[in-house]
Amino acid sequence: MNNKKVFILSGLLPALALILAFTYYPFLKGIIMAFQDYKLFDLRNVHFVGLDNFKAAFKDPKFFTALKNSGYWVFCSLILQFVFGLALALLLRKPFRGRGIFQGFAFYSWALSGFLIGMIWKWMFNSQIGVINDLLLRLHIIDERIGFLSNPKWAMMSVIIANVWYGIAFFAIMLLAALQSVPADLYEAADMDGATGIRKLWNVTLPYILPTIIATTLLRAIWIFNDPSLIYGLTNGGPAGSTHILSSLMLDKIIYAGDYGAASAIGVIMIALLLLYTIFFLTVTKAEKVGDF
Amino acid sequence: MKQRLGTGFKVLFLGIYLIVMVFPLYWIVITSLKPQKDIFTFPLRYWPKQFTMDNYVNIFKISKFHIYIGNSLIVSIAAAFIVIIISVLSAYVLARYKFRGHGQVMLAFFLTQMLPGFISLAPLYLMMSHMDLLNTRYSLVLMYTVGLIPFSTIMLRGFFQRIPGSLEEAAMIDGCSRWSALLRVIIPVMLPGIASTFIFAFVQNWNELFLAVMFIDDESMKTLPVAMNSFILKFDVDWGAMSAGAVLSIIPTIFIFAIAQRFIVEGLTQGAEKG
C-alpha cells in the first residue's frame, strides 16, 4: 500500500512541480501585474495602481477594435473551419484509392506554425506582386488590385481566410476519427427503416458524434481566441491596429511596448471572457461532461 | 444517375480542396527558386523560366542560418525527450491509479490548455533573467518541456488506457516491481503512442516563436522562428531570401508529417477521445 503511494507520488511529482513553478506561478504573477504599473524600461518604479490599467484599456479605441475583432475572428474562423472540416471528413469516411496520399496533402497545414503560415499568406496577399491579386485579375473577378492587407476594409477578412485555411485540417482529423467510430449496425437499422443519406446523416451520424463536435468546438474556439501567431506573422495587427485581436494586442504590448501592466490587464479581461464563454457554452449544450478533454 | 452525381460532386470538392491546400506551399517553393528579378516582374510566372538556388545560397551568406537550424534541432529534440520521460510517468499514474486529488490533478493539466498563456510571458522573462538563463538554449528546453507536459500527459494517458491492466498485473505476479513492470512490459507495447507524442512535441517545439523571441537575442542562440522574425523586420522586401528561409523551416516538419501522419492522427484523436 505504502509502496503504491510512493509510486503515485514519484510519478506525478516532476510534472506537477514543473507546471506549478513555470506555468501557474508566472500566470498568477501575470494576473497581479494587471494591477501594477509594470514597465520593462522602468523596473525600479513598479507599484500597485489599482484598476488604472483596466481604465486605460477601456479608454483605448484599439482595445475595442481588438475586442470586436476577436469576436469576428473566433466566430467566422470556427464556423467555416467546422463546415469545411465536416464536409471533408464525410467525404473521406469511406476508403478510396489514394485516400492516404490525399490526407497527407490535405492535412499537412497542421504541421506548420501559425507564424510561418501568416508569412506565406502575407506574400500571397501582397497588393502589388501578390499571387492572389494576379489570379483574381486573370480570372476577371476584379478589375484592379485589392489591398488585402493594407486596406482596413479587407484586412480582417483576409486574416480570417488564412486562419480558415490553417484550421480545416484540425476539424477534419477530429471529426473523421469520430465518424469512423460510429457502429455500422446503427446504419443497418436506419437502412431497414428506409432512411436516405441526408436523413441518416441527421438522425444517426450527427447525434452519435455530437459529444466530439461539442468538445472539439469548445476547445478550438478557445485556442483560436488565445493564439496570436497567425496575425502576428500576417499583419502584426496592422494597418493601424485594425486587425489586432485581444491576444495579439496583448503580445504587442509585451514585445514592443514593454508595458507588462497594460498587457496583463488585457490578459485578465481575456480570462474573464473565456470563463463566461465556457459557462455559456456548457449551459447551452447541456454537456456537463464532454469527455474530459 | 444520383450515384454518379454524388461521386462527381465528391471528386470536385476534394479536387478544389486539394488545390487550395497545396497552392500556398507550391507558391512559396516556386518563389524561393526564382531569380531575384523574376520575383518582382510582371506578368507573374507560375512556372519559372529559370530555376536557381541563389536564394538558398544567399540566406546562408547574409545570416548564420546553419546555426539557427542547429539550435532549433537541439532545443526541439532535447525538450521532446524530456517531455516524454516526464509525461510517460504522470500519464501512467493517472491512467492506472485512482487516488485522492486525481480529479484536481487532471484539472490542473487541462486548465493549462485553456488559459491565455501569454499573460505569463513577461513574468517568465523576468524569471529567466533572475535565473541567468536569458540567451541560453536551456531556457527554451525548460519552457518547451513545461509547455508540453500537460498535452503529452493527456495524450499518453489515452494510450495507456487502451492497454489492458492485466498485462502488468501478470508481470507483477511474476515478481516484477511496479517500475520494472512499467519499463519492461508496458513501455514496449506503448512505443507507437510514445513515438507519435514525441513527434507532436518536436513539431510544437520546432515551431514555437514567442518564448524564443522573448528569451533569445544573441545571434548564436537564435532558433529558426526567431531568425525568420528578425528577417521580417530587417529585410522586409527580400522575399527571395525569406521564401527560402520559410521553405527550409518547413521541410523538417513536413517530412516528419509525411512519414508519421497516420500515427500522429491516430494518437491525437485516440488520446483525445478516450480522455
From TrEMBL, chain A:
InterPro entries (UniProt xref): MetI-like, MetI-like_sf
The UniProt keyword set, sorted, is:
Cell membrane, Membrane, Transmembrane, Transmembrane helix, Transport
Main localisation: membrane
User: What are the annotated GO cellular component locations?
Assistant: plasma membrane
| Membrane topology, from the record | Multi-pass membrane protein
Domain of life, per lineage: Bacteria
Provide an example Pfam family for this protein. Answer: BPD_transp_1
Membrane-spanning parts:
72-92, 104-124, 154-180, 201-225, 260-284
Q: Which residues form the ABC transmembrane type-1 domain?
A: 67-281
Q: Which GO terms describe its biological process?
A: transmembrane transport
**PROSITE patterns the record matches:** ABC_TM1
Localization in the cell: Cell membrane
In which family does this protein belong, per the annotation? Belongs to the binding-protein-dependent transport system permease family.
**UniProt-recorded name of the protein:** ABC transporter permease subunit
Species of origin = Paenibacillus sacheonensis
From TrEMBL, chain B:
Q: Which residues form the ABC transmembrane type-1 domain?
A: 69-260
Task: Please indicate if the UniProt record lists Transmembrane helix as a keyword.
Answer: yes
Q: What is its main location?
A: membrane
**Record flagged with keyword Amino-acid biosynthesis:** no
The record lists the membrane-crossing segments as 12-30, 73-95, 107-126, 138-160, 181-203, 239-260
**Bilayer topology annotation:** Multi-pass membrane protein
Q: Where in the cell is it found?
A: Cell membrane
Q: Which GO terms describe its biological process?
A: transmembrane transport
The record's GO CC annotations read: plasma membrane
Keywords attached to this entry:
Cell membrane, Membrane, Sugar transport, Transmembrane, Transmembrane helix, Transport
Q: Which Pfam families match?
A: BPD_transp_1 (PF00528)
InterPro entries in the record: BP-dep_ABC_trans_perm, MetI-like, MetI-like_sf
Q: Organism's domain of life?
A: Bacteria
Q: Which family does it belong to?
A: Belongs to the binding-protein-dependent transport system permease family. MalFG subfamily.
The protein's name is ABC transporter permease subunit
Organism, by scientific name, is Paenibacillus sacheonensis
